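Case study 2.
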Amino acid sequence: MSSSTPTNPPSIDSPPTGPAPTRRFRLLPRGVAARMALTFLLLFGGASALLIGGVYFLTAHALREQVDRNIREDIALLRSAAQDRGLRGLARQLVRQAQMAGENQAVFLLTKADGTPIAGNLTRWPEGVPFQGRSVVARDALSLTEVTDTLPPRGPPRGPHGAGPGWSDPMGAAMPPFPPPPPMPPHRRPPPWESGEVRLVTLSLPSGAHLLVGRDMSLVEGLLDRMAFAMRLGLFVTALLALLGGWVMSRRFGHRLEGVTQASREIMAGDLSRRVPQGKGLDGDDFDQLAANLNAMLARIESLMEGVRHVSDTIAHDLRTPLARLRNRLESLQSDCAEETDREGITQALKEVDGLLSTFSALLRIAQVETGGRRMAFAPVDLTELLADVVDLYDAVAEDAGAQLDTELSTAVTVDGDRDLLFQAFANLLDNAVKFSPPQGSITLRLSVENNTPVVTLSDRGPGIPKSDRDRVFERFTRLDQSRTTPGNGLGLTMVGAVIEAHGGTITLTDTEGGGLTVVVQLRKKTGPA
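Prediction:
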């Protein structure tokens, strides 16, 4: 037997070496609580955002349409005054409407053909604004003033000559209808450096005069800004409440599911008497009814399993006693037998009886392990020392079989478990490796730590196990030798699988490079202080 001993063995608590495993990107969180909270946020937040956004845009459209409607009504009144009372009536009506609307809200200007102001609250025609059309300008670009008009007094001229017969006021002559205004430009928000925006409509009158009518959008935009802030705040509160509600409900559901999960873990560990918390049972909510149905199912399964186990244990116990008596009688007959032939026959019968006793003992041990009967005896186990004892036991056997047994057991590892069961499990594995290894074949037993997990690897150069049979070999009485001429009862690997599973580990069968079988056993490290 040869062994390799590195100078600095790795510790069970040391971080794993090698390239870090790649993590898959998850679009949704793994936990049910986080998913439910996110679902609530998406549903309520999305619905609230659609509702609030729709209300905002409809309100903004209605307010801006109202401004355009006010401009159209102003132009209609001015058109009526111009048609009835001419340019003087137009100017008087313009002043009256500007005063009624408020100088800070309405913009009016009536100029002559050369741009000289006649009436309004602007000192001059805005720069860049055409005489016919619609536009939007910044309020800072307008030169506002008090509402005034520069028309001469109404009536005939005074003087030595006076007015001749048939005199009429040229400013009061009726005017032809105004041309229709062009479509309004689309609404826009002013740039941040502008103090506000004013929507304007300009018309060139048939007399050559120019008319400008506009409305300030500052109040509307200010109202929309406050409305948008209130809606954003409401949306934030809605999202916060959605998250909180999702978290509360997910915590409640998670608490209910945790009871089911914990019970299922204990049942899978072998405690078939465990039940799911069911609250009010069939009279409760959906979770209580589900728990009650699960408990009824578990009770039925426990009853059936207990019946099967009772029958198996009874058969095993009842048959062990007569077999033991039969063995004692055969030994008595063997000692009293004078003929060599009879003695050989009795010896062969003793071997058959010993095989039956071994089979029944294995069945009882497997049943005890699977039901968790040995779990209370778990204690810290030095896995390195245990494997060394197994090797010492089979070193001579391997040497007699012509196999070379190599070990790498320098890593100090401690696990929680039953030392006797672990010893038997690894002894069964090593026994199979020695039994099926060819002459001069090599067997390697290695103990390592991978990703903070103890790993025992046993490799041989035997015939191996086909991939299609690797799961089946852990079932009771499974033997790859269909003729069943080789020694054994098909319970060795069943016992190994039950012991490893009882210790929270896994066992995997793979091919050895170059031919043979490799058994990989992963166990849980010891928890808590040594």
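The domain at 374-530 is CATH 3.30.565.10 (Heat Shock Protein 90).
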